[in-house]
Amino acid sequence: MGTSTANVVEILALLILLQSVSSFCNGDNFNGSCIKTEREALVKFKSSLLNNSNSLPSWVGDDCCRWHGVTCDDITGHVVKLVLSWASIMGNISLHLGNLSNLQCLDLSLNPSLAIHSLHFPSSLKYLYLPYVSINMLPSLLELELWNCELSIIGDVSHVNFTSLEVLDLESNNFHSTIPSWLYNITKLQNLVLQDNAFRGSLSTDISNLNSLASLDADFNSLEGNIPNTLNRLCNLIELDLGYNKFGGEISGTFGNSSGCIKNSLENLILLNNSFSGSIPDNLGQFKRLKELSLSQNSFWGSIPVSIGQLYNLETLGLSQNSLHGKVSELHLLNLRSLIDLSMDGNSLVFDIDPEWIPPFQLHWIGLSSCEVGPSFPQWLKTQKSIRFLEMSNASISDNIPDWFENISSNILRLDLSYNQLFGTLPTFRKLNTTYASYLRFILLKSNQFDGFLTCSHFDATILDISNNLLHGQIPQNISDTMPSLELLSLSNNYLNGTVPATLCRIESLQILDLSNNHLSGRIPSCWGNLTSLTVIDFSSNMLSGEVPMSLGSQESLVSLHLQNNTLQGKIPMSLRYLESLETLDLSMKSFDGFIPSWIGESLSSLKVLSIHSNKFEGEIPLQLCYLASLRILNLANNMMTGTIPNCFSNFTAIAMHEQKGHWDYYLKDVPLLYETAGYGENVQVYVKGIELEYTRTLRFLYSIDLSGNKFVGEIPQELMNLSGLQNLNLSTNKLDGHIPWNIGKLSSLESLDLSENELSGSIPFSISDLNFLSHLNLSFNHSSGRIPKGNQLQTLDDKSIYIGNDGLCGPPLNNCSDDADELPKGHEKGGTTRKDDSEMVWFYGGMGMGFAAGFIGVCSILYFNDSWRCAWFGLVDRVYNKLWVTIVIKANQDSMLFETAADVELNLNKAPPPFKV
């Protein structure tokens, strides 16, 4: 369309959808000098008005900055504001206003006789206010595009005459509302784009009013409910995209047997990533014009209808990530001569295709992961010369890769055959076609049974993952020559030997290097200074020796460093202090010695995991470790460390706040979303619940402190109890003394607690029964005494070995306590075994004593000052005393003088009792 129409579109957009009044437009005129070209633009604007002789009478003279409604910049002289509200001007808004190149505010409001014809907006315009300006004079408007305008309100514009509007594009705004009803009345609309607006609610049955509609794009919203059956009356609809919403129910009503005239026009049906269910309608085979059928990521079940095979125009068939089952044969694909994209991964489908069958198509994309394609490698792929993406991971293939595979490999950008039972030698790949020379090439063959030697002639890859196979031999020295653009190399869990080739340091693009769990030996090369993109280095579980090279400290982008379980020795090199982005540092199970460097806490502020267990570190824990607020896993176990546990461990904010932000999988930088599955999954071994576990996918949920197997002394810090997110606490095999903290119940997330083999005394605090998630407890071989607390989760921990070696403990699951054993006061430990309980009991008895004394003194004071009360009181006491005396004497005589005469008894009764003394 022309410039005029485009300008109309812009002004109409703001009229309908913007609320843009601003105090900016209300400022006073500046006293600047007028620029000639801008004065001429204003004069031409006035001349275009119908009543120009009577309008704007002050617009005379050379200095336009003094004219009514005109404001100029007092330095540059440019017109920056034009405020003409209530100016009684009539006619059309002129194009000449577009020459005000520095105009920031335009207010033409409340001029009902002013109409929009065309307007060229200056790029400097910030505020536009046009209420009551006539916009109902655009019956010829064909296109209105408002995409990515950051709009939030879509009002009622039913009064606007959109009689000719054919294209309405509202993509990428922020309406957060239902689709307005007036939209369904624009009957000549052909293209409607509602994409990415957070629209909610359902799609109205009035959609059938748009009988000229050819394209409806409403993906990436929050629309829900069923697709209205009236949609099938849109006889001109070519493209329907409702993907990435919340639609549900079955689609048979719209696209089934009663599908109406839509089946004669529809070419693209995109319903992916919703909640549709039911079976795929067999009637879809009648949609002969279909080019794209995308039903992936829903809940469709049942088998794939054979009628799909009749869609001879179909180019894309997307059925992945559903609950489909049954067999797929060549009948399903027989007439799909235009097919390019076949995606059925993530279903329980069984491919039963004749090995002699020759497909009528040339596929670019094949996605069959998690389907049962094997056991034989599919022979029908032999004819597919244009494959770019081939994904058949976890496809039950138990075979070797045939020799002919090399012939179809030159166009393959992504190959994923992981998690099968492929055997034999690694396949050979032809060099990537020059057409795709600038593309990344992914080769993922992990978790198979490939054996033989690794030779780089097999590959021309950017990402190479052949981990968890049976490969042996050495890593080729020419790896940097054959794969100079390598970004990810994972050879872990094989049987590779020899040294780490120094030629790896020549691959400047390398980001992730994983050589773990092999038989590599020798020293780590000291050439790493040339690499600036490395984020992950994992050399763990090999036989590497010598010291850690200083050059590793030059990797400023390094996020994860694993050197554990080798035979490295010496001290941690100071150069590692420059790894400011480091999140995981695992140097465990080696022969490092000396003191833990204080710079770990001072410089590595991003650390989440610090694991240096099973070394020969000595000395105290540096207090600088408390600076690591992001730390989630601290493992210092099995060293020779001494001193006390720092109180400042409570500064581990991530544990205290139970943070779960961030991720633990590291992907390649600047890699398209398509490739994001290739990366490195962080892994850490932690001794939890009495066994050593390797955490990978669940690592982000783990919070652990392990200081076991050292020589720490002193009491367990009370401050440690503030780490409410802590799940694993192991302080066993030290020399800790004192009591178990009375408030240990504050560790509300604790699942595993091991305090065994220390010198802890006193009773087990009652609050330990508040640990509702506790599933592993070991308090053995201490000096604890008293009753074992009962209740809640402790009832399930009935293994006697939990408490063995504490001779003073009693109660289930040990022997019952003796009758004279002190009972636990309600809510407290026995005998006041903690300082807090002792203090509370002192105050309790002290208060009781003071209360008794106050009451006694008060009674005595009343008796002293009030004679009548005093006489009554002592008279009462005297009578009670006499009665008690008589009772006692009678009882005594009955017991000791059974044969005494009645006279003797009479004599005794007549004796006066001894006087009562106050």
Automatic annotation (TrEMBL):
<keyword id="KW-0675">Receptor</keyword>
<dbReference type="Pfam" id="PF08263">
    <property type="entry name" value="LRRNT_2"/>
</dbReference>
<feature type="signal peptide">
    <location>
        <begin position="1"/>
        <end position="23"/>
    </location>
</feature>
<keyword id="KW-1133">Transmembrane helix</keyword>
<keyword id="KW-1003">Cell membrane</keyword>
<protein>
    <recommendedName>
        <fullName>Leucine-rich repeat-containing N-terminal plant-type domain-containing protein</fullName>
    </recommendedName>
</protein>
<dbReference type="InterPro" id="IPR003591">
    <property type="entry name" value="Leu-rich_rpt_typical-subtyp"/>
</dbReference>
<dbReference type="Pfam" id="PF13855">
    <property type="entry name" value="LRR_8"/>
</dbReference>
<keyword id="KW-0325">Glycoprotein</keyword>
<dbReference type="InterPro" id="IPR013210">
    <property type="entry name" value="LRR_N_plant-typ"/>
</dbReference>
<keyword id="KW-0433">Leucine-rich repeat</keyword>
<dbReference type="Pfam" id="PF00560">
    <property type="entry name" value="LRR_1"/>
</dbReference>
<dbReference type="InterPro" id="IPR032675">
    <property type="entry name" value="LRR_dom_sf"/>
</dbReference>
<dbReference type="InterPro" id="IPR046956">
    <property type="entry name" value="RLP23-like"/>
</dbReference>
<keyword id="KW-0812">Transmembrane</keyword>
<feature type="domain" description="Leucine-rich repeat-containing N-terminal plant-type">
    <location>
        <begin position="36"/>
        <end position="73"/>
    </location>
</feature>
<dbReference type="GO" id="GO:0005886">
    <property type="term" value="C:plasma membrane"/>
</dbReference>
<keyword id="KW-0472">Membrane</keyword>
<keyword id="KW-0677">Repeat</keyword>
<keyword id="KW-0732">Signal</keyword>
<comment type="similarity">
    <text>Belongs to the RLP family.</text>
</comment>
<dbReference type="InterPro" id="IPR001611">
    <property type="entry name" value="Leu-rich_rpt"/>
</dbReference>
<feature type="transmembrane region" description="Helical">
    <location>
        <begin position="842"/>
        <end position="865"/>
    </location>
</feature>
